[in-house]
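Problem 12. The chain below contains 225 residues. Write out its predicted structure in token notation.
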Amino acid sequence: MRILVVEDEEPLAEAIARGLRREGMAVDVALNGDDGHEKATVTRYDVVLLDRDLPGMSGDDLCKEIVASGELTRVLMLTASGAVSDRVSGLSLGADDYLAKPFAFPELVARVRALGRRATPAAPPLLTAGDVRLDPAKRTVRRSSGPIELTRKEFGVLEVLLSANGSVVSSEELLERVWDENADPFTTTVRVTVMTLRKKLGEPGIIETVVGSGYRVPDSGTKTG
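Solution.
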């Protein structure tokens, strides 16, 4: 999942970002409404965590802009007020969920994951290619030889490739969907991650390199069980 945190309290914003990254999410941070608006305009986020009280463009106005864009991006509003009237007004702007500060981090993660599921087409119970089975819900990968332990980035790359149903996925798209804005677009990190992923998956190989275009898993699809 690609997440944008728009929060003007920098220590809180960075703490949220670190925690969500530990959960395997790609997270960008904006410390004011204008920066948040710019990021949300150029990048398709699954979920935006949005403080209502922001310098520059207000959280309310940014929420309305995101909703008006027609994207599937989901908005979770954060506020220091837990009053019912504030929750109602926030939701009436088009926000999908509302969380009052201070909050328990496990609850935040659960809400973000729930919104993320609504921001993308429903994930199938299994993504498959040959005898490779990836379970998005359980975050597990198996072959007929047994389970395969992957890092968060390796799992993310494999999930994106399998979800493409045989289409080519560029290195740029993998970098955008699995990493975050801090990733150097000229880095070899995607190539290196694909290389280590191939080694862990073993033979027969399932990931093809399409020279000049990217990568694909030609024999990919979905199963219901």
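Discussion. The CA atoms of residues 141 and 192 lie 19 Å apart. Students who got a different answer should revisit the alignment rule from Section 12.3.
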